[in-house]
Specification:
The chain has 320 residues and is α/β, with parallel strands linked by helices. The protein is built from eleven helices and ten strands. The model has no long low-confidence stretch (mean pLDDT 97).
């Protein structure tokens, strides 16, 4: 495994400065935002697509420092019921496919998207219960008329570019938990998998270790982000919390830097389970902890993970 970071964290810094900081911090991999929700502060996508020489020069900034690109990320909603919104996000994703192929990157990360609840809707509709029957009918329509046909085509296109699509399971989108991730893989093929972010499972009440084992080889990339559940607030209002992230004292849960939501024992089990399922890619730090600065949250995550990451091959079982 290699320790990495989602470079959106350093979007306010020049690319060279950020890369130097990442290298100095002892990391080996970077995940690059190329548009949609993460933006593209470090990657001039159109400029690189127009020139193989410029793309090679840009990549050299990374590889020349002894780093590798773990993935390109373009989280968006390509199934948004507003055709203009969806079209823009699809274009960004297709550009990500083309750029990833140029750069030799094998994984493009995004969201599954969320359409409306029917053909006349104008905003996305994320449905969380089966009744009244309108909701079950809407979920059926979303999957059968939108999600499956769209992603079958996109999976085939990604395969043509030599790529894998990694969905981040996130509430608000149709693929948000283990069951929906497994379904999209079954319906649309094995080159759709997971960008596994355990923080999104914690606050839904799921066990990330159970999810890892269920998804297995479908885990294509991993975000290292923690989540702290506030017991009294959750007991009072449950986990479907729409309060702003800045209201930390009143929320049911907040995102935390690794180790500040769950202890070292859990995270040792987490990286061990990754090894059990055969994952040997990047552990990409995603810092969205509102209680820490960019630098402090990042550095605490680095220090914590350096102590638990598994980097060497196991070798033979010398004791058996």
């Amino acid at each position: 495994m290699k320790l990495g970071v989602f470079m959106a964290l350093f979007g306010g810094q020049p690319f060279d400065t950020a890369l130097d900081y990442v290298k100095k911090s002892g990391l080996e991999a970077v995940e690059i935002g190329v548009g949609n929700y993460p933006g593209s502060p470090h990657c001039p996508v159109q400029e690189l697509l127009a020139s193989k020489d410029k793309a090679a020069e840009w990549k050299k900034k990374i590889t020349g420092r002894g780093l590798e690109i773990s993935a390109l990320s373009c989280h968006g909603n390509p199934l948004h019921p507003d055709p203009g919104f969806a079209g823009k996000d699809i274009e960004v994703m297709h550009n990500a496919f083309r750029l990833a192929e140029m750069l030799g990157v094998k994984t493009v990360i995004g969201f599954s998207g969320c359409p409306g609840g029917g053909p006349k809707d104008t905003v996305p509709n994320w449905i969380t219960c089966p009744w009244p029957p309108d909701f079950s009918d809407a979920v059926k329509w979303q999957w059968e008329e939108k999600l499956i046909p769209f992603w079958k085509k996109e999976a085939a296109l990604a395969k043509d570019h030599g790529l894998r699509i990694a969905f981040e399971m996130h509430p608000g989108f149709c693929v948000y938990h283990t069951e929906s991730l497994l379904r999209i893989r079954k319906e649309c093929g094995p080159n759709i998998g997971a960008n596994f972010d355990p923080s999104h499972l914690f606050w839904q009440g799921m066990d990330p270790l159970v999810s890892l084992k269920a998804i297995g080889k479908g885990v294509f990339h991993v975000h290292m982000k923690d989540c702290r559940i506030d017991g009294p607030n959750t007991a009072f209002k449950g986990v479907l919390d729409t309060m702003h992230y800045g209201n930390e004292n009143e929320r049911s849960w907040i995102f935390r830097t690794i180790g500040f939501g769950h202890g070292e024992t859990f995270w040792r089990d987490f990286v061990s389970t990754l090894r059990v399922i055969g994952y040997d890619g990047a552990l990409s730090i995603e810092h969205e902890d509102s209680l820490m600065s960019v630098n402090e949250g990042f550095q605490k995550a680095v220090a914590f993970l350096k102590n638990i990451i598994l980097t060497e091959k196991t070798g033979g079982m010398w004791w058996a």
